[in-house]
Amino acid sequence: HERGARVPPPIAHTLVEQRAILTLWALVQSPLILGTDLTTLSNETHNLVAQQGVLSMSEDIALAFEALRVNTSDAGYIVWSATSKAAGASMAPAYIAVFNLWNQTQSVQVPLLDLGLPPSPTATALWPNGSPFHFTATALSASLAAHEVLLLHMD
Fold first, then answer.
1. Which has more pLDDT, 37 or 81?
2. Residue 3: how many other CB atoms lie within 10 Å
3. Cα–Cα distance between 96 and 91 in angstroms, integer?
4. Rounded CA gap, 82 and 105, in Å?
């Protein structure tokens, strides 16, 4: 390296953890500030910070809040809900994010009533290659890797 050239430090978080961090950033609509040389971003990091669905969500959110926290011996996850500016005064969730708090994979069953969702809704995942999920008449079900987030745009 050239004298005085800055070598970027390695990222200490896994890609899964980076997605969780960026999801929280987008939910609370914080400015995204990258303290790095943008010409040397890895493809992985570029794809992460340029994920159009997540960026669009951040611009669309009217209100985001922690909707549910489960921290028992059987489960550990936090669910955030966000409303859309396009929905006006409606408090119906437009986005749902489920964060796995555990250091291991866990299956989550999030009651739809706790989120203000109707029975058997439909949604689109905003992070590509994320964990599969499905809705039953009463719950959102998913198996999430350690520290993974499931980020959904409600259809």
1. 81
2. 4
3. 13
4. 25
Evaluate the CA torsion angle 134, 67, 104, 130 in order and state its sign. Answer: positive
Of residues 99, 103, 141, 105, the one with CA closest to residue 121 = 141
Residues whose CB is less than 8 angstroms from the CB of residue 38 and which lie 6 or more positions away in sequence, other chains included:
none
Beta carbons within 10 angstroms of residue 54's beta carbon: 21
Q: Classify 129 in phi/psi space as left (phi over 0), alpha (psi -120 to 50) or beta.
A: left
Residue 97 tokens read as: 């994010």
In this prediction the pTM is 0.88
* Residue type at 84 in one-letter notation: S
Give the number of other Cβ atoms within 10 Å of residue 126's Cβ: 23
Supply 66's token pair.
């922690």
- Does 34 have pLDDT greater than 90? no
In 3-state terms, what secondary structure has residue 152? Answer: strand
